[in-house]
Protein backbone atom coordinates (compact mmCIF):
# COMPACT_ATOMS: atom_id res chain seq x y z
CA UNK A 1 0.00 0.00 0.00
CA UNK A 2 1.40 3.40 -1.00
CA UNK A 3 0.45 5.97 1.63
CA UNK A 4 1.46 8.79 -0.72
CA UNK A 5 -1.59 8.00 -2.86
CA UNK A 6 -3.80 7.83 0.22
CA UNK A 7 -2.71 11.30 1.32
CA UNK A 8 -3.12 12.73 -2.17
CA UNK A 9 -6.59 11.22 -2.57
CA UNK A 10 -7.71 12.75 0.74
CA UNK A 11 -7.20 16.34 -0.43
CA UNK A 12 -10.24 18.57 -0.09
CA UNK A 13 -11.71 20.66 -2.89
CA UNK A 14 -10.20 23.77 -1.33
CA UNK A 15 -6.75 22.18 -1.29
CA UNK A 16 -7.16 21.21 -4.94
CA UNK A 17 -8.03 24.83 -5.77
CA UNK A 18 -5.20 26.34 -3.70
CA UNK A 19 -2.77 23.89 -5.32
CA UNK A 20 -2.96 26.07 -8.46
CA UNK A 21 -1.34 29.05 -6.69
CA UNK A 22 2.24 29.50 -7.96
CA UNK A 23 4.74 27.94 -5.57
CA UNK A 24 2.07 26.30 -3.44
CA UNK A 25 1.93 23.08 -5.43
CA UNK A 26 5.58 22.20 -4.73
CA UNK A 27 5.17 23.10 -1.07
CA UNK A 28 2.00 21.00 -0.78
CA UNK A 29 3.60 18.03 -2.54
CA UNK A 30 6.49 18.11 -0.05
CA UNK A 31 4.02 18.29 2.83
CA UNK A 32 2.07 15.35 1.38
CA UNK A 33 5.29 13.33 1.13
CA UNK A 34 6.08 14.10 4.77
CA UNK A 35 2.55 13.19 5.82
CA UNK A 36 2.70 9.89 3.90
CA UNK A 37 5.98 9.02 5.61
CA UNK A 38 4.48 9.90 8.99
CA UNK A 39 1.55 7.57 8.32
CA UNK A 40 3.96 4.85 7.23
CA UNK A 41 6.12 5.27 10.36
CA UNK A 42 3.00 5.12 12.52
CA UNK A 43 2.12 1.82 10.86
CA UNK A 44 5.65 0.52 11.46
CA UNK A 45 5.38 1.52 15.12
CA UNK A 46 2.00 -0.24 15.46
CA UNK A 47 3.44 -3.41 13.90
CA UNK A 48 6.42 -3.28 16.25
CA UNK A 49 4.14 -2.73 19.24
CA UNK A 50 2.12 -5.77 18.21
CA UNK A 51 5.30 -7.87 18.12
CA UNK A 52 6.39 -6.38 21.45
CA UNK A 53 3.08 -7.53 22.94
CA UNK A 54 3.63 -11.02 21.51
CA UNK A 55 7.08 -11.06 23.10
CA UNK A 56 5.55 -10.24 26.47
CA UNK A 57 3.19 -13.20 26.02
CA UNK A 58 6.22 -15.40 25.36
CA UNK A 59 7.92 -14.06 28.49
CA UNK A 60 4.83 -15.06 30.49
CA UNK A 61 5.08 -18.57 29.09
CA UNK A 62 8.74 -18.71 30.15
CA UNK A 63 7.91 -18.30 33.83
CA UNK A 64 7.73 -22.05 34.33
CA UNK A 65 9.89 -24.97 33.33
CA UNK A 66 13.29 -24.95 31.71
CA UNK A 67 12.45 -21.83 29.68
CA UNK A 68 12.82 -19.68 32.79
CA UNK A 69 16.57 -19.62 32.17
CA UNK A 70 15.89 -17.59 29.00
CA UNK A 71 13.64 -15.03 30.67
CA UNK A 72 16.41 -12.45 31.17
CA UNK A 73 17.55 -12.77 27.55
CA UNK A 74 13.98 -12.42 26.35
CA UNK A 75 13.61 -9.32 28.54
CA UNK A 76 16.67 -7.77 26.89
CA UNK A 77 15.23 -8.47 23.44
CA UNK A 78 11.95 -6.90 24.50
CA UNK A 79 13.73 -3.76 25.75
CA UNK A 80 15.68 -3.49 22.49
CA UNK A 81 12.44 -3.71 20.54
CA UNK A 82 10.92 -0.99 22.75
CA UNK A 83 13.95 1.19 21.96
CA UNK A 84 13.29 0.69 18.25
CA UNK A 85 9.62 1.56 18.68
CA UNK A 86 10.58 4.79 20.43
CA UNK A 87 13.06 5.68 17.69
CA UNK A 88 10.53 5.04 14.92
CA UNK A 89 7.94 7.20 16.66
CA UNK A 90 10.41 10.06 17.19
CA UNK A 91 12.10 9.89 13.77
CA UNK A 92 12.59 13.09 11.81
CA UNK A 93 10.13 13.73 9.02
CA UNK A 94 12.53 15.45 6.68
CA UNK A 95 12.40 18.94 8.09
CA UNK A 96 13.43 18.73 11.70
CA UNK A 97 16.58 18.23 13.71
CA UNK A 98 19.65 17.21 11.80
CA UNK A 99 17.84 17.61 8.47
CA UNK A 100 17.90 21.41 8.98
CA UNK A 101 21.44 21.42 7.61
CA UNK A 102 20.24 19.66 4.46
CA UNK A 103 17.84 21.30 2.06
CA UNK A 104 15.34 18.47 1.85
CA UNK A 105 13.77 18.18 -1.57
CA UNK A 106 11.28 15.76 -3.04
CA UNK A 107 14.02 13.31 -3.99
CA UNK A 108 15.24 13.13 -0.40
CA UNK A 109 11.69 12.79 0.95
CA UNK A 110 11.05 9.98 -1.51
CA UNK A 111 14.27 8.28 -0.37
CA UNK A 112 13.10 8.57 3.23
CA UNK A 113 9.74 7.05 2.33
CA UNK A 114 11.34 4.20 0.41
CA UNK A 115 13.68 3.54 3.32
CA UNK A 116 10.68 3.26 5.64
CA UNK A 117 8.85 0.97 3.19
CA UNK A 118 11.88 -1.34 3.20
CA UNK A 119 12.02 -1.17 7.00
CA UNK A 120 8.37 -2.27 7.17
CA UNK A 121 9.23 -5.29 5.03
CA UNK A 122 12.04 -6.19 7.45
CA UNK A 123 9.72 -5.72 10.44
CA UNK A 124 7.47 -8.43 9.02
CA UNK A 125 10.35 -10.87 9.56
CA UNK A 126 9.79 -10.55 13.30
CA UNK A 127 6.72 -12.77 12.94
CA UNK A 128 8.89 -15.71 11.92
CA UNK A 129 11.40 -15.11 14.71
CA UNK A 130 8.62 -14.88 17.31
CA UNK A 131 6.97 -17.99 15.88
CA UNK A 132 10.35 -19.73 16.24
CA UNK A 133 10.45 -18.92 19.94
CA UNK A 134 6.85 -20.09 20.35
CA UNK A 135 7.62 -23.37 18.55
CA UNK A 136 10.69 -23.90 20.77
CA UNK A 137 8.61 -23.26 23.87
CA UNK A 138 5.93 -25.68 22.69
CA UNK A 139 8.55 -28.36 21.93
CA UNK A 140 10.52 -27.50 25.07
CA UNK A 141 13.64 -27.69 22.91
CA UNK A 142 15.93 -25.18 21.23
CA UNK A 143 14.68 -22.23 23.27
CA UNK A 144 18.09 -20.50 23.68
CA UNK A 145 18.75 -20.67 19.92
CA UNK A 146 15.29 -19.32 19.12
CA UNK A 147 15.72 -16.41 21.55
CA UNK A 148 19.16 -15.65 20.04
CA UNK A 149 17.62 -15.64 16.55
CA UNK A 150 14.93 -13.20 17.69
CA UNK A 151 17.56 -11.00 19.35
CA UNK A 152 19.61 -11.04 16.15
CA UNK A 153 16.62 -9.94 14.08
CA UNK A 154 15.81 -7.08 16.46
CA UNK A 155 19.48 -6.05 16.36
CA UNK A 156 19.41 -6.00 12.56
CA UNK A 157 16.30 -3.80 12.64
CA UNK A 158 18.05 -1.40 15.01
CA UNK A 159 21.09 -1.27 12.72
CA UNK A 160 18.92 -0.69 9.69
CA UNK A 161 17.03 2.11 11.37
CA UNK A 162 20.31 3.72 12.44
CA UNK A 163 21.15 4.13 8.74
CA UNK A 164 17.95 6.14 8.05
CA UNK A 165 19.87 9.42 8.03
CA UNK A 166 22.28 8.00 5.46
CA UNK A 167 19.37 7.32 3.10
CA UNK A 168 18.51 11.03 3.02
CA UNK A 169 22.14 12.12 2.84
CA UNK A 170 22.82 9.75 -0.05
CA UNK A 171 19.79 11.06 -1.94
CA UNK A 172 21.10 14.60 -1.35
CA UNK A 173 24.57 13.59 -2.54
CA UNK A 174 26.04 14.20 0.93
CA UNK A 175 27.96 12.22 3.50
CA UNK A 176 27.86 12.31 7.29
CA UNK A 177 31.07 14.39 7.18
CA UNK A 178 29.33 16.93 4.92
CA UNK A 179 26.48 17.12 7.43
CA UNK A 180 28.88 17.69 10.35
CA UNK A 181 30.58 20.50 8.46
CA UNK A 182 27.23 22.09 7.57
CA UNK A 183 26.13 21.95 11.23
CA UNK A 184 29.30 23.76 12.34
CA UNK A 185 28.31 26.89 10.41
Q: How would you describe what is shown here?
A:
With 185 residues, the protein is mostly helical. It has one domain (44-184). The protein has helices at residues 3-9, 13-18, 24-61, 71-90, 106-123, 126-139, 143-162, 164-171, 176-184. α3 runs antiparallel to α4. Residues 21-27 and 95-102 have low confidence and may be disordered.
Number of helices: 9
Overall, the morphology is elongated
Strands, total number? 0
Distance between the termini: 40 Å
- Report the biggest beta sheet as strand number plus sense, adding barrel if it closes: none
Walk me through the topology.
Layout: H1 3-9, H2 13-18, H3 24-61, H4 71-90, H5 106-123, H6 126-139, H7 143-162, H8 164-171, H9 176-184
Amino acid sequence: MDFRETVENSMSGFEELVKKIPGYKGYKEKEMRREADTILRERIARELENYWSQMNDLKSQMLTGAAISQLDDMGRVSRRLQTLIDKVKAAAQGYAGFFDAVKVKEKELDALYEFDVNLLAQVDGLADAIAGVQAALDAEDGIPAAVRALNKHVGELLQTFASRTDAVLNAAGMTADDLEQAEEF
